[in-house]
Amino acid sequence: MNVLLLGSGGREHAIAWSIAKSPLLTELFIAPGNPGTAQHGKNLLIDTEDNSAIVTFCSERDINLLIVGPEAPLVNGVHDAILNDPRTKDITVIGPQKAGAMLEGSKDFSKQFMLRHGVPTAAYKTFEATTLNQGLAFLETLSPPYVLKCDGLAAGKGVLIEPTLEKAKSSLKNILEDGSFGAAGAKVVIEEFLDGTELSTFILTDGKDYLLLPTAKDYKCVGEGDTGLNTGGMGALSPAPVADEAFMRKVKEKVIARSLKGLQKEGIPYKGFLFIGLMRVGDEPKVIEYNVRMGDPETEAVLPLIESDLLAHFKALGEGKLSREEMIISSKCSTTVMMVSGGYPESYEKGKKIYGLNEIGPESMVFQAGTKEMNGEIFSSGGRVLTVTSVEETLSGALAKSYRNLNKLSFENSYYRKDIGYELANARED
Ligand code: AMP
Ligand code: GLY
Q1: Does residue 288 have its Cβ closer than 6 Å to ligand 1?
Q2: DSSP code, position 421
Q3: What gap in Å lies between CA 244 and CA 48, rounded to an integer?
Q4: Which of 220, 264, 283, 366 is the least buried, fewest Cβ under 10 Å from its Cβ?
Q5: Position with higher pLDDT, 361 vs 306
């Protein structure tokens, strides 16, 4: 198969690494990719939001499968563009069409969808500039902390959790009146705060059948002990220790089955990954959000645990044979720790030479994210620069390997959290 993969992060490096192992792969292209993906295929200078350039490339190079890493090209309708062109309409696309991408593209849409189909989630109401006063009054009926979510895509920064009523009111005014989040904040979802343990679940689905991937726990805060600003993710471990069998049964029944039934009922086609962000409240799952793609850095932890052929699963999905597939998952644990540029998620410097990449032993894998290559050397080019993944019998064993290898890597002002997974690793061994 000829495959085109869109994206340039650690997630895409992990996907490229995974499918490059498949005997079904003929040629792999990545647009735009990074030096990590270039180890497994050919990087291309194509803008991931230029649908016509993507369609033309797919047609000229006989692409059989298009895998869309990030959400933006999906919300931008790349899958629809492929279907609408007679030259490319038969290509399998991993990632939903625009209609399905709304599950991530609009919080208000996704909350209404959950309500319509009985998917458990936090109680909420949506407000816009014309209903600001009602929004302020609604806040007064809630108790702290207050959860405010911009309706549209806001690069992962559109959720505010405010400790006081005063702050919540002023943030709501900033978003709706002053437009502090631009168009993404034209509507705001205000919802009940859920007190529980967060975890990420992922399925690969054709809209009817699905394969369940390993679960994960993501560490979002930049600082140790889960302090400081929210980031795209500073590390992840898989499986999530709170995802025991009884809980996952409830997730399948109350969340996954109802979500897929809802899509079918509404006539929304859906082919690709669905990432369901959950809060375990007591013994019950509640959906925090849907994402229409895999998580980053969760992908870097999850894919190394999949022992079956991911590309074969994609192929089966395209042929309508997903129900015959079985995803084989290792019983081991996987951890990934992100190395970032000092200052991230606020301002940081780029262009720092990365040392030690050749010293990482086979016990760990480096997945590159914000990197670029110049004259055979690798430099930082973003906030999240690379991630180190290890797989072991225990979480603590995997973490020890990841940290041992992170120690060998450096660039000026590099930073990583030293405490990923430790509370869980200790709890498990007690
Ligand atoms: P999101 O951008 O939707 O992933 O939200 C960012 C983070 O905010 C989530 O990962 C949760 O930790 C937190 N969050 C979102 N909604 C809620 C909620 N209703 N209650 C508690 N925490 C929440
Ligand atoms: N790590 C969270 C996300 O990918 O949305």
Answers
A1: yes
A2: T
A3: 38
A4: 283
A5: 306
User: Homologous superfamily of 197-429 in CATH?
Assistant: ATP-grasp fold, B domain (3.30.470.20)
227 Cα: distance to centroid of ligand 1 (angstroms): 15
Out of 288, 294, 298, mutate this one to test ligand 1's pocket (max ligand atoms within 8 Å of CB): namely 288
Report how far ligand 2's centroid is from the alpha carbon of 134 (Å): 32
CB 416 within 8 A of CB 385: no
* CA 423 to ligand 2 centroid distance, Å: 21
Measuring from atom 4 of ligand 1, which residue has the nearest CA?
289
pLDDT value at residue 426: 59
CA-based torsion, 305, 306, 311, 317: positive or negative: negative
Domain extent listing, the chain = 2-95, 124-191, 197-429
Residue identifier of the C-alpha nearest atom 5 of ligand 2: 295
> Which tokens hold the place of 102?
């709304």
Tokens of 35: 């030096």
Strands 65-68 and 92-94 turn out to be parallel
Is the CB of residue 388 less than 8 Å from the CB of residue 405? yes
pLDDT at 120 over 80: yes
| Distance from residue 159's CA to the centre of ligand 1 (Å) | 7
Task: Using alpha carbons only, give the angle 94, 81, 290 rounded to the nearest 5 degrees.
Answer: 45
CATH architecture of residue range(s) 2-95: 3-Layer(aba) Sandwich (3.40)
Angle between helices 395-406 and 422-429 (to 10 degrees): 140
- Residue 241 near ligand 2, beta carbon < 6 Å: no
Which tens digit of pLDDT belongs to each residue from 169-221?
999 999 999 999 989 999 999 999 999 999 999 999 999 999 999 999 999 99
Give 388's DSSP letter: E
Please report which helix (H) or strand (E) contains residue 374, including its range: strand 371-374
Report the alpha-carbon distance of residue 13 to residue 289 in Å, rounded: 24
